[in-house]
Amino acid sequence: MPETRPYIDLIRLYFIDEQVRYPWCLPLWQDLTGIKGGDLFGGAAGWSTEVEREIKVFFDEYRARDSEEERAMFARGGKGGADSEGRKFFSDWVGRMWERRWKLHTAFIEFFVEDNVHPLAIMKAANDLTMWPGSEMYVPQSHETAALALFGPEVFNDGILIRDFRFALNLFATWTWGKLRRTIKTDLGKMEKKHSEAFSAFEALIQTKPATTSQVAKVITSVGEWRKLTLIYSDSTTVQKANEMMDEVNCIMVEIAGEKAPSKAKAKAKGSGKRLTTFKKNPNNFIASEEGLSWIIGLYHQYFGREDDDHDGGARLLDKGTLAIRLEDVDAEQGDLGTELEAKMSYDLLSQRLGFRHHHLPHQFNQYRDDKGTQNAWDARDRDLFKKPSPDWVPNSLHWHQLRVTRI
User: Fold this and answer.
1) For residue 132, what are the domain limits?
2) 74 and 134, same structural domain?
3) pTM of the model as a whole
4) In a domain? residue 188
């Protein structure tokens, strides 16, 4: 089904009943959007007088069209459609609010997950990340979930979702489905590039004598960046490649750091026994200062330090974990913490939803911290603290429960 921008179907819903203004009259929708009073107009949406007047003209011209086809064409604009300030104002406003304020793109993704129709989960179940599932087959399975969450029971008649709302939700969900397709396609393209960069980094390491700390760092960062994507997009073939690369990184860490190597690297260095490189440390092929070695170990902890990063049959979209207190089971009557959805998320997914895309940290945080706790990069005298390697550095990171508190 072709994608339709959400603002078009919001106009259609507005005129399905002249007595009330859907969906703006529905309490759940009002709570979600913050627009009260049962209507968009009369100052409820916070538009200026001029903008509201232009949008009202656009709505009136839309209603004057004779058929749904003419109305849809008019609302889309372009050839045969509206070319008015009101259309532009309204489409831009909905576009800004849809995810930034109302979080509806995220909501539909969560509906897909809840009803087991997330496109990535479907592709992974088929062990084929190249075959995109058609929206017409899977999207309708999430309509009832979405209707209850966004509109409430008012849009059901004898337990059946009213056709106009089913149609609207189908368009809204298809819009999200299309955005997911573009995002996943981009990420899969990045994954191929990162995979190639990782192999190139391994090749450079064994061909250069002596190898440098920066080349080892390139191996760690390249494998780490590629592996981040495999935690999401992991069919069985990708998991095998990720495990082989991880085994090689662990072997390299043990070779160059010996007893100082991270315990995780020493425990997992043997892996499957299959080596991707012939790298062996000797006085002629690798030289590093103590500071440089500490820097490399810090990078390893940054990318691979968490135990939950290990592939154990493939990454999951949501991971409930093994919490002693299952936060998703806390309901409103017993004390709603407001984090039931977050309680089901893995560390990486929660970081992504919070917008912590750089090392899983808020943008104000430093990537490293001083292990002794005697220096603070925010102090004027220590402003250059992290500009050169130091054995006192350790990667800065948040635990899962700290991320959850950030969400609250």
Assistant:
1) 6-182
2) yes
3) 0.63
4) no
